[in-house]
Each structure stands twice: as structure tokens, then as C-alpha cells.
Specification:
about 25% strand, alpha+beta, 5-stranded antiparallel beta sheet, 15 strands
């Protein structure tokens, strides 16, 4: 043991219990930051800086955010699974596949309902072709998830669906709209938010935020010009400056193993001689508080109003079923609902949705699950300490 280590141990031995607990928490946070520090590397073939995807969608473009789309998809899945007879399940699954095609292709309702699954789907290339029936018009080829096309092929190949082969998408437009509205209500989405047009808009926004270039989205949607596609995004002067600064300063993307991610903007900064408390407001409206070292604060270049990502690893998330039990020293505490429980007899992964639809993951012991009597569907509180929040700017 070195002289420095002996000196540190001598000083630590003189601390009281409270001071030792604070020191332990701070040491654990420092170790976590060092072990989980994101690695930066060049992403060959990357579509562009993800900061450019942080645009503002004009208010007159009705669309769904990612969490709302997930809730709507889950509503269709549950509706299909709740069918009491095989014929009803097939009918509901047919409607569900029409919804998924609208959701993933960005096609118009008439285009999707005109599809012939025997001639307009290329399973090998994960492509669906719109407009192939018109000999004077070249079909528009759109890439969709292969898993969706595999579902379509399996559905069409079923002997029970022999009578609708080649026409499985040929549903009445009014019927499709009604079912979209019904499942939107079941998913708790705002009235009038879900329609074939809003799904088309949502896919465009989703692709643009994912870094897909504007001309590619234009081709996918079948727009005659980039002007039509550009209606989905607008950039303020501050957005433009931030994007340019990002492109000049960084060319890499961040990789992290943290399961819980909150994106937002810094709302307040409070400094001490050693540490800095950073508060940010996430997109879901929650306030996240993080405490980092002054060195990390300076290195990140954080400022009020700046964009930042807060990361929290699942083992650092604690749970409580009673709001009073959740009133601990942890600065971050949010209500939610348990959606799934998966364990191996020792550790258990608790997946939940915070109020507003933000996913949350906690990793706790199986004994804790039994003690708290946690079950799927339970209302629960997720909380974590400010020292457990890792901040990152992309």
C-alpha cells in the first residue's frame, strides 16, 4: 500500500456514518462514470449527425410521437389477441396488418388498400411496391421491416385465408378509419390524433429524426418535390447554430449500455467547490437532477438551455409501490406502471411506463420483487439518485 493510500484510509477512518455514506455514493458514481464512459468512434456509412434530427415539427402537421405509436401498436396487438374465436382473430389480424403497413410504409390509405400481397411484395429485399397496377407509372418501392412482410406472407398462406389471397388489404376505407379511431381511444391518445394521414406524417417525421436524408424520405412518400417533404421540419436560428457547431466539433455517435435515457434541455445549474448540480427538463416534462464533478461539467460545456441526454443504468433504479415509501433522499422520483417482469431466479428486470409513456427499466433482486409483491399492471414509483445520472452531449 502506498503512502497516499495510507493517508486516505487514515482520513476516511475518522469520518462519521453519514459522511461515509455520502463518500460511498460519490465513489460509486465516479466508478460508474469511468466504467461506463461512452466510447467515440467513426460510424462508417452513418446517415449524418443525429443533432440534425432534433428539428421542430410545425403545429399544423398532425403526427404521433414514438411512444404514442408504440401505444397504438400495443392496442392493436391486444385487440387481436382478445378475439374469442378463430374467425374473429383472423379478421382482426387482417385489420392489424393494414395498420402496420400504414404505420411502416408511409403510404396513403388508398395505396395500402390497393396492394396485392402476391405481386407487390418482395420479401427478399423487404420492399413493398405502390402503384404497380398502372402501366404508365413506375411503381414506388418502399423498404419496410422484413418482420412485417413475413407476417403478411404467413397470413396470406393460411388455408383459412384462401378466399382473400391477392386481396387481403382490400378493406373498406371507412371501416379502416373507424378501427383506427377505436384503437386510438383504447391507447388513450388524444381525440382526432390518429388517422391514415397522421400515420403517414408520423412515418416521415420518424425517418427524418432517425437521420434519413430528406431526398430519401421524398422518394419514399412519393412527393413530387423536396418542398413538399420539407413541411415536416423547421429549424430556428438556434437550432441551425447548434447543428453547425455539432458537425464541426463531432463526427461520431455515442454508444452506451444504459437502459434508461431522457433527452431534454438544461434548466438550471448550481455549483459548489467540488460538484455541480444540473437540472434538465426532459421531453416528457419530467425534471431530472444530476450531480457531477466540476471537471465533468466544464468538459461537457453545459449551459442553461443547452441540449443534453441523461442516462441511468437499470441497477441504479429503485422501486416502491407506495408514494410515501418513495419519499427518500433520491432526487428523481416518478410514477409509472409495470408492463413486464422477467427474471432468472436471482435478478429480475422490471419494465415499466412512466406517466406520459416514457419506458423505464429497473434491475432488482427476486427477493425484492416478492417483498414488494410487484405484478404486471401495478402502479409503482421509479426513483434514482442524482449521483446515478450520467450526462452526455452528442
Amino acid at each position: 500500500m502506498s503512502t497516499v493510500e495510507e493517508s486516505i484510509l487514515e482520513r476516511v477512518s475518522g469520518l462519521d456514518v453519514l459522511a461515509l455514506e455520502r463518500l460511498r455514493d460519490h465513489a460509486e458514481a465516479m466508478l460508474a462514470r469511468k466504467s461506463d464512459r461512452p466510447t467515440h468512434r467513426r460510424q462508417h456509412g452513418a446517415l449524418g449527425p443525429c443533432q440534425a434530427a432534433l428539428f421542430t415539427v410545425p403545429n399544423d402537421i398532425r403526427h404521433l410521437e414514438t411512444d404514442q405509436i408504440e401505444r397504438l401498436t400495443a392496442a392493436f396487438d391486444e385487440w387481436r389477441d382478445a378475439a374469442r374465436t378463430a374467425p374473429i382473430r383472423r379478421a382482426r389480424d387482417r385489420m392489424r396488418l393494414v395498420y402496420l403497413m400504414l404505420r411502416h410504409s408511409g403510404g396513403k390509405l388508398g395505396e395500402v388498400l390497393a396492394l396485392n400481397e402476391r405481386t407487390d411484395i418482395d420479401l427478399a429485399q423487404s420492399i413493398v411496391s405502390f402503384g404497380g397496377s398502372d402501366p404508365n407509372e413506375a411503381p414506388r418501392r418502399v423498404v419496410v421491416p422484413k418482420s412485417l412482410l413475413e407476417e403478411v406472407v404467413r397470413f396470406a398462406a393460411s388455408p383459412a385465408n384462401r378466399g382473400i389471397r391477392g386481396e387481403m388489404f382490400r378493406l373498406d376505407p371507412g371501416f379502416v378509419r373507424r378501427k383506427l379511431y377505436e384503437q386510438a381511444r383504447r391507447a388513450g391518445l388524444p381525440p382526432g390524433r390518429v388517422s391514415p394521414t397522421s400515420l403517414r406524417h408520423s412515418r416521415a417525421v420518424e425517418l427524418l429524426r432517425g437521420g434519413v436524408p430528406l431526398p430519401v424520405v421524398q422518394v419514399m412518400l412519393g412527393h413530387s418535390s423536396l418542398v413538399l417533404t420539407s413541411i415536416y421540419c423547421s429549424f430556428s436560428d438556434q437550432d441551425c447554430q447548434r447543428i453547425v457547431n455539432h458537425c464541426v466539433a463531432k463526427e461520431s455517435r455515442v454508444k452506451t449500455s444504459a437502459r434508461n435515457t431522457f433527452f431534454g434541455s438544461v434548466t438550471s445549474v448550481r455549483k459548489s467547490p467540488l460538484l455541480t448540480e444540473v437540472s434538465l427538463t426532459a421531453q416528457n416534462g419530467f425534471e431530472i437532477v444530476s450531480v457531477i464533478t466540476n471537471e465533468s461539467f466544464e468538459r461537457l460545456g453545459l449551459t442553461e438551455g443547452g441540449q443534453v441526454t441523461a442516462l441511468v443504468k437499470a441497477p441504479w433504479v429503485l422501486l416502491a409501490k407506495d408514494e410515501k415509501m418513495a419519499r427518500t433522499s433520491a432526487r428523481n422520483c416518478f410514477p409509472g406502471q409495470v408492463v413486464s417482469i422477467r427474471g432468472d431466479g436471482v435478478a429480475v428486470e422490471i419494465m415499466g411506463l412512466l406517466d406520459g409513456g416514457t419506458p423505464m427499466c429497473a434491475l432488482i433482486t427476486a427477493e425484492s420483487v416478492e417483498t414488494l409483491d410487484i405484478k404486471e399492471g401495478d402502479q409503482i414509483w421509479f426513483f434514482f439518485k442524482a449521483f446515478s445520472v450520467i450526462l452526455n452531449i452528442d
